[in-house]
Amino acid sequence: MKKTILTAVLLLTLCQIGFAQTNYTEKLDNYFNALEESDKFMGSVAISKNGEIIYTKSIGFADVEKNVKATKNSKYRIGSISKSFTAVLILKATEEKKLDLTQTIYKWFPTIKNADKISIKQLLSHRSGIHNFTDDNEYLTWNTQPKTEKEMLEIIAKGGSDFEPDSKAEYSNSNFVLLTYILETTFSKSYSDLLQKYIAKPLGLTNTYVFGKINTNNNECKSYNFTGAWKAVTETDFTIPLGAGAIISTPSDLTKFADALFGGKLLKPESLEIMKSVKDGYGIGLFQMPFHDKIGYGHRGGIDGFSSVYSHFADDKISYALITNGTKLSMDDISITVLSAIYGKPYDIPVFTTYNLTSEDFDKYLGVYASKEIPFKITFTKDGNALIAQGTGQPAFSLEATEKNKFKFDQAGAKFEFNPIDKTMILSQGGGQIKFTKE
């Protein structure tokens, strides 16, 4: 849900490959076993071909404190993947002539700036200009508390507009919260009921629904950040993300959803083409997700320490879904490995090495670091034998030492190199470098 500076970018090399009839099961088992043995990842994966599940795997814990292992039936919050479901519901409404994508949102939300200019389709494609409320630093101070529709509309309206409608595209969870309210008003049903009626029940998605408080007795996973140890993350109340991120599911259910969506079982062909239409990088509840010479469609998600991704490759009728409730690695790197195994692309089983430091060794790095290049600060603290970093308005995360004065955060593909004498730190990520100075 919340966008951050430390965002991993999927970088893939183009080459000609095809679906490989190889022993991917053993290869993937070896890969995930290596992740589990090194305590690098907790979560589940599923892959289908021609509508049939061909691989599933679950590692780690659904509940660390109670020592409950994850299984293929463990359910995870999927964050912004919920937007794909919401887009389907909106297009269902247009197919039933209940909504028109070109109509403006003024009749529902007259207090929203530019409401008389913003169309439903612009909400769907992130072209509304409506400010993303999860970008605000205060968001994490109230996201665990229930909010009424009136309260959420006041928050969104207060955020104003970041750009003129349809002048560009910029991700905003606010768009899909508003789409939720449009759906509920149009059908006179809750978003939860609409999800079940139009998607979950027809497809047999028994593990997919709008979440409430996490219930581990119902196979619902808790989520964790690693800050020296796996520590439980607080829960966003479902009344806040709604159709932008309030669904819980499993990888197997997500592959079923993808197979049905791209197999024509949910929408008419013309509606699916609308979802797949990409402008400025954004589709309608979908993104293009390239893998080598293949173009898949899907979505990523993140909420409360959960991260998720699903994609469908129509040419090979392959669907793939991965969800984690705690990871020290990049989801993109894991996705590349899984798809490489399926397509017969070479990859390596990782070998994890550790550069050991004592708690006292971290003292020279501690403090607040600021940069002249961006309005963003990073605070470094320690927790036992772990160096902890926390960016402005973001959750804390644990860094892994790689060599003297050098650390990494694989989950975001970020590297940190300190110069204790100069009291500086260089952040390297995505091919760029930013210099920070200790205050």
From TrEMBL:
Keywords: Signal. InterPro entries: AmpC-like, Beta-lactam-related, Beta-lactam/transpept-like. Pfam families: Beta-lactamase. Residues 1-20 form the signal peptide. Residues 44-333 form the Beta-lactamase-related domain. This is CubicO group peptidase (Beta-lactamase class C family). It comes from Flavobacterium cutihirudinis.
